[in-house]
Amino acid sequence: MGSEWIPPEVDSTRPSVARVYDYLLGGDHNFASDRDLATALLRVEPQARELAQANRAFLLRAVRAIAGTGVDQFVDVGSGIPTQGTVHEVARSVNPDAKVVYVDNDDVAVAHSRTILAGDDRAVVLQADMRRPEDILADPALKGLLDLSRPVAFLLVAALHLVKDEEDPAAIVAALRDAAAPGSHLVISHLTHEAEPGKTAAIGKLYDRASSPAVSRSHAEILRFFDGWDLLDPGLVYVPQWRPDEGGAVADPERFLVFGGVGRR
Ligand SMILES: C[S@@+](CC[C@H](N)C(=O)[O-])C[C@H]1O[C@@H](n2cnc3c(N)ncnc32)[C@H](O)[C@@H]1O
Questions:
Q1: pLDDT, tens digit (0-9, with 9 covering 90-100), for 5-59
Q2: CA of 49 to the centre of ligand 1 (A)
Q3: Is the CB of 210 under 6 A from ligand 1?
Q4: What is the mean pLDDT of residues 133-137?
Q5: Cβ of residue 18 lying under 6 Å from some atom of ligand 1
Q6: Residue 196 pLDDT grade (very low, low, confident, very high; cuts 50, 70, 90)
Q7: Residue-range definition of the domain harbouring residue 78
Q8: Which of 126, 216, 248, 261 could bridge across to 236 with cysteines, CB 3.0–4.6 Å?
Q9: Ligand 1 midpoint to CA 234 (Å)
Q10: Number of domains in the chain
Q11: Once rounded to an integer, what is the mean pLDDT over residues 143-151?
Q12: Ligand 1 centroid vs 80 CA: distance in angstroms?
């Protein structure tokens, strides 16, 4: 593999949540600082790789289900470093014309997404901060590709727990909701301390030295992000419990530490 995925401005010394997640998923787009944090994380949570995979699998099941209702526009906020099974591939396996806007603030995530999407005129990546949703919604690249008067799916998967309370994560979701035409969808997955408060507190401490914090929230707090949306079956559940594929049910879903849900406008 070449080094074209390493943008010149990248800070390789501070662990990046995008690159730690890439490492957990078996990717190659990470540095020693990321692997050190991932190693520490694996000591606190030996199942961290399985958690990352379950979260990613939830995202792709949700995209497939939403595309199956006819939605063909997706905005993936905090999209990460592209890995096997991307949102545009999965959405287009259902709706061949599906358009996707990826949004991330991480240099490597954006550079690698640009490489993957080169020559694709129905998918773009924006380097933007989700804490400024109005900038994302007003971006000419988004407005040029998507028609927000039609249904769109906003994906905030393993993203809102990277936003502190004082940065007002509810305002992010509210801005997206206000921009969403009837028939639009919202997908959220989020770290929770409901089952293992000690473990999630230790994870939060570890992420203090990363590019974004890891803020776990309660079921009720995460549910409030769906204000103004109708929560689809089976509700806000541990990610493996959200419409599992055949054979995908697990006996002890609470060990996955991440809730997921899908709302419809
Ligand atoms: C854990 S990854 C999740 C990737 C993907 N959504 C998934 O669930 O497979 C979180 C992503 O959010 C991005 N991120 C963190 N803070 C952000 C911010 N303020 N604005 C935009 N992206 C952000 C990180 O760079 C990272 O790529």
A1: 788 788 888 999 999 999 999 999 999 999 999 999 999 999 999 999 999 999 9
A2: 16
A3: no
A4: 98
A5: yes
A6: very high
A7: 17-264
A8: 261
A9: 25
A10: 1
A11: 98
A12: 5
Residue 10 domain-assigned?
Answer: no
In percent, the amount of the chain with pLDDT more than 90 equals 92
Determine which residue's CA is closest to atom 24 belonging to ligand 1: 18
Q: Which residue's CA is the nearest one to ligand 1's atom 27?
A: 80
Residue 224 contacts residue 188 (beta carbons within 8 Å)? no
Q: What pLDDT was estimated at residue 1? A: 56
| Residue 6 vs residues 89, 112, 128: alpha-carbon distances, Å | 24, 8, 18
Tell how strand 123-127 and strand 99-104 pair up: parallel
Q: What is the DSSP string of 121-145?
A: TTEEEEE--TT-HHHHHH-HHHHHH
Q: Output the six-digit token pair for 106.
A: 């991480």
pLDDT beyond 90 at 97: yes
Amino acid at position 2, single letter: G
pLDDT at 2 over 70: no
CA 82–ligand 1 middle distance (angstroms): 11
Q: How far is the CA of 22 from the centre of ligand 1 (A)?
A: 11
Over residues 134-159, mean pLDDT: 98
Q: Kindly state the helix (H) or strand (E) to which residue 188 belongs, with its residue range.
A: strand 185-191
Query: Does residue 204 belong to any structural domain of this protein?
Result: yes
Q: Is 17 in the pocket of ligand 1 (CB under 6 A)?
A: yes
Is residue 5 domain-resident? no
Q: How confident is the model at residue 83 (pLDDT cuts 50, 70, 90)?
A: confident
- What does the block give as tokens for 48? 């961290």
Give the domain CATH number at 124: 3.40.50.150
Please tell me if the CB atom of residue 89 comes closer than 6 angstroms to any atom of ligand 1: no
Residue 30: CB within 6 Å of ligand 1?
no
Question: Which of 60, 106, 156, 189 has the most ligand 1 atoms within 8 A of CB, as the residue to mutate?
Answer: 106
Q: How far is the CA of 79 from the centre of ligand 1 (A)?
A: 5
Number of residues assigned to the chain: 265
